[in-house]
Records
---
Amino acid sequence: MSLDPATVRRIARLARIRVEEAQLVPLGHELSGILNWIEQLNEVNIDGVEPLTGAANMALRLRPDVVSDGGDVEGVLANAPDRAGSFYAVPKVVE
Amino acid sequence: MSYAIEGRTGPWEIVVGLEVHAQAITKSKLFSGAPTAFGAEPNSQVSFVDAAFPGMLPVLNQEAVAQAVRTGLGLNAQINLVSRFDRKNYFYADLPSGYQISQYEHPIVGAGQIEIQLADGTTRQIGVTRLHLEQDAGKSLHDQHPTKSYIDLNRAGVPLMEIVSEPDIRSPEEAGAYVRKLRSILRYLGTCDGNMEEGSLRADVNVSVRKHGEPYRTRCEIKNVNSVRFVMLAIEAEAKRQIEVWEGGGTVEQETRLFDPNRGETRSMRSKEDAHDYRYFPDPDLLPVVLDEAWVAELKAALPELPDAKQARFIGDFGLSPYDAAVLVAERATADYYEAAAAGRDPKQAANWVTGDLFALLNRTGRTIEDSPVSAAALGALLGLIADNTISGKIAKQVFDIMAETGEGPAAIVEARGLRQVTDTSAIDAAVDAVLAANPDKVADYKAGKDKMFGFFVGQVMKAMAGKGNPGLVNAALKARIG
């Protein structure tokens, strides 16, 4: 599998990562290398094998429906670059 | 008669599928212990999990799972004993983690169906494709500051059940009936309060149009429509827009649109070509959800009677018309009120009183059935007074109004105000004689063949008796005198 520059640009935009034009081709080679390496797994025959969801055979733990958190506006906003009262403030998102 | 919109090139059929987001009733969020209550101080109901602080891990709320299963059972849908959470990736300021935890390939509930009833009395089955659990995002306020948007994460992480219909809906009326019926089922189940004003129930509407017999054409999705009426208006407006595009020689582009209720039209929301590329993948923080079959059976056994079953029972056991039964079962509180008032009384008469006088009273006073000025027990007692001939149906209306105003019981009102029906035949005979004696000319008219005069005499006798004469006895006494 080989990634062309247009695909690399699109992946980068979806991930909100800025990539300079000159980087598109070399990055495409690098990503293709990773994909090709992973795709070797497709050679293994897994017919009739259950999907493995973890190394330990565990079930998902559920919690009872109890309120045990919240009420910490200052803690939640502590790392906010900007705030207005109890709100986060961000550059205007225009629809 | 099927619905169609007439275009310049002939009739167009509309094809609609709905994605309804229903907030599951829980105390705490889907993956955190922060509360879900509506209307709290901004960011006061947020855990570090909801705000996506690094290293925070989601832990699934068992009650949210139970609510999804109950809803699935209520929709006669398949319950998937193994389901999985995926990450839906997109960037928006009110989604702090950059992804929404949702269920993509393996939802907790599979195919089911909802029966809708239309105004002409027909019913239709609308397929439900699936129901899955997902987190809500936060709320953005764009109008508080000229250059900034404000973000409140109180809703972030609130559990939503997304209920997706098949594209089986063919008219705005069917879409409205579908949302109302779904809302009714959710409220019966107690899995969602169905409050559209507070956003606990909202719909994304997929609309396309086609000529009869064609395969589906391109659809557009109208996001976040928050009332039944707007769902119906948005479908009509969007269908007309698409017909104009097609008939003008253009092509409808798949896109997300918003409905503007003030202008009665939809407008494009975002035209990014990659808007739908969410790059879903299994959430590595969460193992698959595995349900115990016995637990599902337990939830099923505890389900309440649902509107369809209740309506069938009201028709079968009480002899109500399908229409009256549908009106009474739409809200569980109304059905409960009706059953309490009708217990041991004439069920049809009780239905007439609830859908007639009681609904009119609630409308007039702006009250709901939960805080009705006349309780179900009091209305039942009033019906009892009619049944045992203590009062006539006409006097009962008067008593009902006094009950609503004063809160007194019907028996006390009848006694205190002397409204007891007169069944003493000698008193009735006396009143009849007096009326006939006072109107010899009308008696002559009647005997000459003016049958309508009989009603006049009944009215006069009742008037003379202040409305308290037993109507049957008054009729009989008149018949005996003038035949």
---
Amino acid sequence: MNKPVEPNSFRTGPDEQGMFGIFGGRFVAETLMPLILDLQEKWEEAKNDPSFRAELDSLNAHYTGRPSPLYFAERLTEHLGGAKIYFKRDELNHTGSHKINNCLGQILLARRMGKTRIIAETGAGQHGVASATVAARFGYPCHVYMGATDVERQAPNVFRMKLLGAEVTPVMSGHGTLKDAMNEALRDWVTNVESTYYLIGTAAGPHPYPEMVRDFQSVIGNETKEQLMAAEGRLPDMLVAAVGGGSNAIGLFYPFLDDKDVQIVGVEAGGKGLEGEEHCASLTAGAPGVLHGNRTYLLQDGDGQIKEGHSISAGLDYPGIGPEHSWLKETGRVEYVPIMDTEALEAFQLLCRVEGIIPALEPSHALAEVVKRAPKMGKDQTIVMNLCGRGDKDVFTVGKHLGFEL
Amino acid sequence: MTERMDRQFARLRDEGRPALVTFVMGGDPDYETSLAILKRLPAAGADVIEVGMPFSDPMADGPAIQAAGLRALRAGQSLAKTIAMVDEFRKHDSDTPIVMMGYYNPIYVYGVERFLSDAKQAGVDGLIIVDLPPEMDEELCVPALKADLNFVRLATPTTDDARLPAVLANTSGFVYYVSMTGITGASIANTTAVGEAVTRIKRHTQLPVCVGFGVKTAEQARVIGRDADGVVVGTAIVQAIANTLDGDNKATSDTVEAVATLVGGLAAGVRASRLEAAE
């Protein structure tokens, strides 16, 4: 594909059709289309309504605990011997990850639309937990679809969702992972379209979800900009974040896209290696296609059948990616690289020992890239990495890989 | 070609009965059996045939059609093979309209222009693409109409009068009314509401209106056929195929016959639907 002409701004998308270049759009069944248009209208109203913003800001501050700290990782910086490393600590949020930022925004929108029931899909369970949390907080019944494989490997999160009053349906179709959970959530939505709000967990799906989720998650990047300015008096040299669907990454990246001197790196799940089938690197090893309401890079075969991805991290185990990331790749603004399961595992352990922080496996991928890059950079340079989730949910998985009986 | 479809609906209008539109998944349970079923359908009573293009992630389909798609894919079906099936079918039948139904991604990956040219060449008459609403018409609908293929649009209970003109604008061949908000294979709760919806759509278009999703029995076909210009049956046929398969999901000597028997009954249903109304 030809490289598009570099735009004057990387912050103007999507267009009125919901497209970022050729990516995005509204590829949904007619049953859902009137609702998607209604959602878009309500979202336009909400984002221009100061009272909507004020309520969300207040919840972010008092319920989630924002702003999350920007932490200078002194010991890790010394250990790697290069650039100064800062962590944006969204793992300290209520519910333990960045997912709550988006869920609070969307639940306010659901209430505005007069919906009476919330559905969500989840992979690692972080989004399911965040959805169940906001549904409990606002008094909505919540139904979470989760791949049967994920239900098994993320049992603590399943229990948390149930404690919060959500109903969890294990999805048996396909390989029982995030993609299949999303198919099933879409089937529920098309059936219960009048009453139900679909709380999508990542910056993907039909327009306006990618834009909406990005805007709710941009609180991460906006805070980072202010906090680093206070700490260092300047912008970072590099941003690093893990990308599954890509919501934590776009949240950090978006406010910096027009700051041309800031190098931006997205880290995909390289799984067991890109030469085989067992990875989730849709941008590095996939091709453009249409799935779950948008055109984006997908892992697929030559007949357009979607492949099952693999990652040690259930949260990165999705064969697609948010459409804005596809566009940022095509325009060259963001560099996307794969990190293997084994590299993520090593980074996970390193952070535990050097900084006393147990990270989730998702940001452990971003950390593994930081470990590669920081030593090659000057000591006067800075990297900000999004530490988007805590690792409590992953200790069983990691224990198993390290041969530790739990 | 668009002409074969128009001719068929004109003929049925003259006969004073609705069309029986049958759906089968291309390549289910395997290419040869599926082709044999396809060839058998017109004689069994099908007036229009929808051939499903299997897709790994059929978001609007219930368990029966999901399973049919997976069986076909596991048996090696591809978009190219589904087109080839239609081509084979056309050697034996030049009257029964064929509509290919499925999701956009396999076509997008095949290449839109190449797909339209190959489908047209094979004798396909129209397309139904579930995940392409009118907002995305430039993708495939407009090129398909230029290539003289019908683009059959789905109208649903959520398509209100304000939106209906946009949905009908580039629709041709017939309008496919989805009887409920839901996935294929669920049950129709209210046939009266379906009749009213068909009447509402007919106020906006001259095109035939066919009703699908949830029609399973000859009796339902008869009742729906009072108001509709056609009745679409999919899940029941796909399930009839599934019921005859052996433990390894392979076809048996009953497979083709079971479909023919079911379709024969459904055909009698649609033929009876206007008799009572005329009484």
---
Amino acid sequence: MSKSGYRSMESLSQVNRREFLRLSGAVSSAAGLGLALGRPPLFSQEKQATPPVRIKTNVDDALAVPRTKHSLPGLFPGKVVQVHDPGAMVQDKPVAQVVSAMFEKGIANLTGKNFADSFPLFFEKSDVVGIKVNPVGAGLISTRLEVVDAIIAWLVAGGIRRENIIIWDRFDYMLKDAGFTKERFPGIGVEGLQTMDEAVAEGKAKDDSRWLTPDGHHVSEGNFDREVYYWADAEGPKDKPYLNQHVFNGKYSYFGKLLTKKLTKIVNVPVFKNTGNGVSIATKNLGYGAICNTNRLHRPLFFDVCTEVLAFPVIRDKLVLNIVDGLRGQYDGGPEPAAQFSYLYNTLFFATDPFALDMTCHNLLVAKRKEMNVKVNEHPRFTEYLRYAERLGLGVADPKRIMVVTV
Amino acid sequence: MTQRVFLIALAALCSAAAPAQELTLPADGFVEGWVCSGPSRDFSRDELFNHIDGGAEIFLEFGFEHLTVQRFKSGRGELAIEVYRMESPDAALGIYLTRIRTEAPLTGIRARNSGDRLQVTAVKGNYLLLANNFAGSEQLLPVMADLASAVLDQIPESPPTKLFDLLPGEGLIAGSRCMFRGPYGLQRIFTLGDGDILLQKGKTFGVAAEYAETDSTKFTRIIVSYPDSASASQAYQHLLAYRDPTIRVTEEKAGEFRFKDFQGKSGIAALRGNTVNLRLRLSRIP
């Protein structure tokens, strides 16, 4: 079992924790579970299956904003580069030189240009670049420091100042747990969008003062931009445990000011893992990692959040590269880290198009799950959000139109 | 030498079906050099998310009651045991089967188990037990077995579940049997629809298994046995009415419908007395 605490990428269909308990507490009630997963539970004579009613969101506001040259799906729609090197991990530790060489090959094969010439395709020297890591399964399935080292080296070689590079995630304590500290990355920014008091969340402490101000506000409120938000017609519980974890609890999920005010480009560096029957890779790393107040979104919107949050210009127009750290993969048990289902994969993936990337990785993980005798539900609902993104012009989801280059 | 007694009277309060059970956690020195690392931690139903946020739902759906976690340390590493009390032996077996893939028992554990150097999962009576080895050292496997056995040996054997008797033996692929008790468990197997599509109401168990169809193909069989035929009929009608939009009915007659799924494979849903029977992922209708 993993360390307890918040996990930013909960399972597909996960119900808000308190709501689930309330419902399952009255577990004899069919209405409970029916409500939990979004369908009328009672017997009906109706013979036609009807699609569930989808709640409203403000995604149209995002789509109305004109695109830029950097808008998703970026410079290489539908292209995914997969670089494998069996020597990337030795005794379960990344070999920095090998990882660096893999990175160079990946970028060059993605762009068709040499490593150095690839840089100006994505960046200008004045950019402030945010490297979004996934620290959730610290030490097991989290973004490896050596992969981030390779990215930083490339950015610095291209002329970006170290102080204009920021490693970030939603939760500050997770960054630290996974080794992303200012000591490890001197001169580089390391920022969590918010804090959360783990001890209070786990019931080990009662003192709220580390996360709650005397006037009842989360100490991280100021880190989120009230002007830039993902709105969805669903609310989370108005209790302190939810607030500790999610900063706000209304119908608004605000984007971090780091993204709206500071970063001009984003490099997304997720890990290669499943979440239930789907994946928690490129689009979930940002979809649930760039905003607050997310748990309310799981039940009504599931993976659609990954598409709609990425449709907002604050990500759509800044996310220039996605690099999946597949040095170690996890085919089951995700999004929680699960050592027994993780394996050495020695692979990195590169794409500008996170939706093509997720579709590619999804299919690879399905194959791995079958190989490992895991029950696999291949229902299209688990990839529907990727096709939704394609319909919105954000990426390519049709495997026939995705070009996978293996190196 | 310290002893921690836990799970004493709560069982009697929580479930009439689960008799009060007194278990003692392994004490310091259960194996020479190994001592408890910090106090044990307990989690009730409404606290389980604090231990496995993102994975608690299926435990709750199966009938989770209580969890105790204790870490142990020595100069050789750190281990932990997690003892989950479920509401019945069927509930414990159900959650056990969701957690293992290819069952690989370790020697030295006197209970059904599967595991490796990282984690051992065992089931006995109402209990699911996990023994975790954080460093993953192969040399600690005997200690993990001793640790697990120290708890498991206190739990009396329960009669074998009868739930799997519902599944016909012919063609059944060994190791493929599993259970579900609601939408979270069912979702792992097949998407029949949203919510509590089979009206299990958090109580009724369903069983499933893979079957050989031809030399090269297999299909999935699901059977849910309800308390009475009226409940089964209601569940069958609910499935028909609220089936997933990708399930296209091709033929319907009293108490049975046939369909094509999203992959173009065939399926049959049938009401048989107090059971709903499904055959899924068929290459052809038999």
